[in-house]
Design a protein that fits this description.
Four copies of one chain form a homotetramer. By secondary structure, chain A is an alpha/beta fold. Helices cover 35% and strands 24% of the residues of chain A. Chain A has helices at 28-39, 97-113, 144-149, 159-162, 168-178, 199-213, 222-248; strands spanning 3-7, 17-21, 43-50, 56-59, 65-67, 70-75, 85-90, 118-126, 136-140, 164-166, 182-190. Chain A has an eight-stranded mixed β-sheet, with helices on both faces. In chain A, strands 4-5 form a two-stranded antiparallel sheet. In chain A, strand 4 and strand 5 (65-67) form a beta hairpin. The radius of gyration of chain A is 20 Å and the shape is globular.
Chain lengths: 265, 265, 265, 265
Amino acid sequence: MATKITEFEKPKLNNPIFIEGLPGVGNVGRIAAGYLTEELKTKKFAELYSSHFMPFVLLHQSSAVHVLKNELYYYKAKEKGQRDLIILIGDSQSVDPEGHYEIVEVLLDYLEKLGVKDLITLAGLSVGQPTESPKIIGAVSDPDVIEKYKKYGIDFEGGSKVGTIVGAAGLLLGLGRVRGMKGICLLGETVGFPIIPDPKSAEIMLKLLAKILNVKINTEKLQKKVKEMEDFIKKVEDVQRKTMAGIMRPPEKPEEKKEKLSYIG
Amino acid sequence: MATKITEFEKPKLNNPIFIEGLPGVGNVGRIAAGYLTEELKTKKFAELYSSHFMPFVLLHQSSAVHVLKNELYYYKAKEKGQRDLIILIGDSQSVDPEGHYEIVEVLLDYLEKLGVKDLITLAGLSVGQPTESPKIIGAVSDPDVIEKYKKYGIDFEGGSKVGTIVGAAGLLLGLGRVRGMKGICLLGETVGFPIIPDPKSAEIMLKLLAKILNVKINTEKLQKKVKEMEDFIKKVEDVQRKTMAGIMRPPEKPEEKKEKLSYIG
Amino acid sequence: MATKITEFEKPKLNNPIFIEGLPGVGNVGRIAAGYLTEELKTKKFAELYSSHFMPFVLLHQSSAVHVLKNELYYYKAKEKGQRDLIILIGDSQSVDPEGHYEIVEVLLDYLEKLGVKDLITLAGLSVGQPTESPKIIGAVSDPDVIEKYKKYGIDFEGGSKVGTIVGAAGLLLGLGRVRGMKGICLLGETVGFPIIPDPKSAEIMLKLLAKILNVKINTEKLQKKVKEMEDFIKKVEDVQRKTMAGIMRPPEKPEEKKEKLSYIG
Amino acid sequence: MATKITEFEKPKLNNPIFIEGLPGVGNVGRIAAGYLTEELKTKKFAELYSSHFMPFVLLHQSSAVHVLKNELYYYKAKEKGQRDLIILIGDSQSVDPEGHYEIVEVLLDYLEKLGVKDLITLAGLSVGQPTESPKIIGAVSDPDVIEKYKKYGIDFEGGSKVGTIVGAAGLLLGLGRVRGMKGICLLGETVGFPIIPDPKSAEIMLKLLAKILNVKINTEKLQKKVKEMEDFIKKVEDVQRKTMAGIMRPPEKPEEKKEKLSYIG
């Protein structure tokens, strides 16, 4: 099946900004984008399924199954100084290297049709130890994008510290640029444990996003939301690890040469 | 070749229910669906081949080769209270993560054309130790499906116990739902050894299916059938493990740096 | 690029038999088919390239490069009792499980166009220890094929001994059958070391083929040919193992948690 | 997305020679081709992106992201005895075996349209120990190409020493040949550490190229360029290794049998 987008509604948007927050280190982007989606009362209009996600379903409390997916929400500007938004959140990124490219290209094809020219991607930056006040570091598609975001206190000297951005957050900027889109990746400093969400870094990210997007976000319920999310994320990671292990595990006793029985090539 | 369905006959079916029973933990679904296929005197009408199965053939006693495949059988309702059935059984599921998605999508495309709207998938649920009386746990595509199956004594409180359903049994429900199909996955509790079939759990599953489908099934020959099946399954698993091992095995002495001979990149 | 066939000449053949001899255990099929190709003064008419072969070229003595490929030769019947032949030989089989299916399907599509209805595939059967007089064991696409080949002294009781046939030799029969082709796989007993060619088993195979095809083959030069081939095969196997090792090798010290430098997800 | 070429300009070239210099052992080809590109004041006209490169972006000092890519430059002949050139350089080769074939086929399709009939590919030949004066060894698509390049002091007796050429440098010749292109692979002897660039071997390669192409190249700035390049290459290699490790790493404690919680197949 590769990767496909199922659309429920064709939203009419005016020069929308795209915001991505998928799982990653500290789940900083995922928490921030997910919370934004709820706080702004956005509407889901499309879902993305991919054979590059793990091949299982999760069970909700209600005994209903849940296929891994990414989701697209939209927000129509309500006040002056705001812009229409498209927000991408999801359960998973690709589990194989090639899939990252495929998913990002399917997304960019779709976003192009929706008139997207500006991208904001969210990620965590593992710094290896707890920080008192995590900073937000910026990476851009083009140097001139820095000018636009300079006033928000983003650290643009992180190039040497960062090195690389793995997955959708990086590829959306890099491959979006080939299509003439411009964007920024906001990287929230975090300890860097892959599974454990970092609500502190996510809160700082959220407050920055509120300023950039000119929206009001009440971060009071964030702690509670993160707790809920934590269980779900652990479940996904857990099975992913086990399934991978099953695939990668060598045979118990590969004493093939001693065996008398036949193996034909 | 990816995945393809070869059709022998185009059956005319009236609002058929689809039942899936492929290999998995304890082979509970496979045994139950396979036995159902024979007991109901169903007719094979299509076969599915996939490059996501292992690339070998097995040899029957007759010296004839057997490519790994899945098979589709149909049953025409004979009595009041019965419905037309399509049953899927097979030798193998995908051996790589992506293949599960591909095979399930090829199946759903085909089932959609045959007018399928209801799905029943069968699986084993590994509980880690022998149980006196294994239960059947239910997972559904949509919460309202529970209502329909509540009267059969299925355990719908298993959500926390289950966690995930790996492979076709889960994806058929999850991706079928995107197409408007509704369904249930019946999970038979079993010790959880992957290769060894669990006839006890399969028998309980069969009796439940007989009630749901309103058909009569004599489970007397089940023990004998399971014994026959066991040898075949062991053979498939065995070669699969060995072939995988061959692919994954590191070289015997990778002392590349010490070698004088040339390797060019 | 997947898999593609480059055709030099469109041969006009009358109900040709297809004979496959690719590398495998003991290289029994490869030696026999390769020698047959030379002895019968067949003509090469097509080549098959595939991204499922290893991504390197080999160097001939002449300093000219050699891409891994399979080759198709044809032979026009010259005497009564003979039939037109298509012979497939080659440097390599697929190095990944999926590729075996793809290559076999591309071949069968092509053979179907050339009017092929009968298949003979050649393989080695690893018996784990040297045999005084290796036997040829037969596996068939359909039980009724046994009748046709019974008179040649092939062992058709090998089903229990054989178990499985991995790769093209098995899949050609199994998937050819789905297209209405009939065939036999001839398995020459051999010690079972993958790299070392077994000329004894190949000679017995050749003599059997000569009888079946009603052609005369002088096996005198076989020892010399096998020696030449041995170096080439070793070279291919060697790099294949090393390249695989490079891909599969874990990093030297994955102490990711202790590192201070950043890795972003 | 597979592999795609984005073209900025459609250059009009007269029977151009194609020169390839991608990363590899000692980065001999990459350094030589990269330096040639700058010295000849060539113009970039196309970029190649592929899902067979690693799925991350690198950060430049300017905080701008950099997707892994290959780049195509052209040079118009300025003096008598020169020919138009197309030069391919890049950050990466395919990280999986299949990708090498795909990328090379996409390139050859494109080069065919640009009228390319002659290929020069550059690679390093690992000799395992430092050499006083590294030689350049030649491998050709066809034996008659040797005649053309004999006068430049290339070693054409290296066949036995070389064995194989892995990746684009080899496949471009081997698969180009199937399309009627002719070419040579120049292999610069180097110690053979994959990451560390070998400027000495690259300089000898550059001087040879200058003679063949009849262009003037000042190699004075080579040392400085190599130093700059070294940091970038190390960064790419580093993340590639870590990302691969993350994918390949087995689970920490696969005590699946002891677990009470459920895993369903």
